[in-house]
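dumping this here before i forget
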Amino acid sequence: MSGAKRGVAPSPEEGRPGHRYSPGWRKLTIVILRPLLSGLLRRDWRGRANVPRKGGVIIAANHISEADPLALAHFVYESGRYPVYLAKSTLFDVRFIGAVLRGTGQIPVYRDSADASLALRDAEKALLDGECLMFYPEGSCTRDPELWPMTGQTGAARMALQTGAKVVPVASWGAHELMPYKKGEQKGLAGSLKKGVHPVPRKTMRVVAGPPVDLSRYAGLPLDRDTLRAATDDIMAAITALLGELRGEEPPAEPFDHHRVLEERRRAAEAEAAAAAARGAVPEQAGPAGPEPAGRRAAEPKAADS
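structure:
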């Protein structure tokens, strides 16, 4: 990146450094990825007029595949905006990938560290500087067996309420056929997908953007857990409704709660382990043929009385 021209978005606060990027790197990604994605994927795009052409905006989308960020970025770029993602900080340490991420102005996320707040600080700066910020409120690809959106995390809602930026809900469908999520559920629609990359036959990326989510009822409220949870639920409901339109199906009444499912599975595993330990603690019983594992006799039918 040495010698690359640095771009700085206009800053509303005099003296404050703006969100930095390299116009050269952004142009390079457009030159390479735009024709590649156009040739690789068919498009069924709707609602591009709902993406504001200028000003800070949050694009909040569902996440069904590791391939959908590229499809979504293509949609957003053709809607008149350059997408800025929040990416894992470790990716910035990879030689070429890190250069591209930094050069195009992507924002590192420092997970599980004291620097976690830096991602939101940098994201807020980017929004105030008029960038188009991409959020996957679910935090990862959905674990819902039928690939409906999960419950969301509150980062996008917090950013919107802190900065006043609009939240445009977006739903996409089709990337799961190109590249199913390798850690997806092994049942339902997710379980029926063959893992790997499947470019043939050519897949259709269906993307729809809805009007901004109305978060006006939260204006002026403290950004506590209840406020952020309610605003996040409104955002996820808008995304889910759009996905229902794309799929031509009725969304589930309640979103899949991955954390609750993990907790239920953990408790079930602990209960099973405790039951197994209790069975193993029963003293062995000696019989004519010698010691026999505890519990075995109880599972066998008793002999008839003579």
